[in-house]
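Need tokens for this chain, all 416 residues.
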Amino acid sequence: MTTTSSHAVKLTSRKWTYQDFSWCLSLFGTAVGAGILFLPIKAGAGGFWPLVILAILSAPMTWLAHKGMARFVLSAKDPESDITDAVEEHFGKTGANIITFAYIFAIYPIVLIYGVGITNTVDSFMIHQLGLPSIPRWLLSGVLIGAMTLCVVYGKDLMLKATSAMVYPLVIILFALSVYLIPSWNMSMVSTSPDWSTLPKVIWLAIPLIVFSFNHSPIISQFSKEQRRVYGDDAVKKTDMITGGAALMLLVFVMFFVFSVVLSLSPAQLAMANKQNISVLSYLANTHSSPIISYLGPIVAFSAIASSYFGTFLGSCEGIAGLIHSRSSAPRNKIEKGVLVFVVVTAWIAAIINPSILDMIEIVGATMIVAILFLMPVYSMRKVPSMKKYRTSLPAQIFTAVCGFAALSAVVYSSF
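Here are the structure tokens for all 416 residues:
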């Protein structure tokens, strides 16, 4: 690279470009999925003021964690290295296997969550909006999960394009619904003084769901590689800028949606939505007099859950198959077929059993995400020599680690 071109790259790395904004939207779109449809139920259960504090915490939590993960990927010697390569370089093959295993089981339970979510959404829509009798749960869940899986298996490329295209219309519709709910806001929650004795506990127990709903770690590896390819050693400035922009967008959009929903419902109604194990949009559709929300809410919920299912299904199947293939002499195609059957059957069983979606998100999904996204990069900054120049400030490391341990301890506490 010539001196002039190197100087141009350095100047560009400090300025926002259209490509930066596109990446910011990609990170934002990765995070915006079915998780935010359940976020208001838990985050708003403690009232308005705990939600304000959670909103304040969410942006720095999200930015510092994803910024640290991006720097971890950039710390690998080979510019083509992804996160798995970086883990193997820093912690050896055993460490890489452990992280790969953890990453798979951060994704796989989400498939089960979406199997339950799609069944409950359609069942609620058929009963409350269409006035139809409930179909036996084993049959309804089997048809829905089977149909979505067939779409993935026989139209993978089409489904990936479709889900990518669906993100932004979903964002627009959710934003429109947030605005539409403003006349229904009940401001009595704002005027009610918080219960200071229970406030810390309410915030603490909601942190795992915030982590899950704002998570866009699946795309961070490829995002970091691309910034390194374009900007070389200057890539860290870009990853910091873009992850910060994505965190800010998530704060504004997601928390506006959460606040709008929470202010239009009472804590008792949020608790009822949790008890019914449905998304907040399905609950709004069942209780709101507006035909727009009655029909649009469940359709948006269905679309969000289905689009999230496609990506997580592919990721979990490929990850599990890869892990088995590295330890087995069986043909790859047989392993892939066996894994596909395993994932579909377990998702179907979970949908029939109908466990609490919020509990599954917190206990299983958030646990692995926290370990990889919050704790691994901070640990590496302290212990891995090549991460020294990628260290964030000490207060940032402490804040990220504290949030990570808070999320893990909240999961453990909620499990008992």
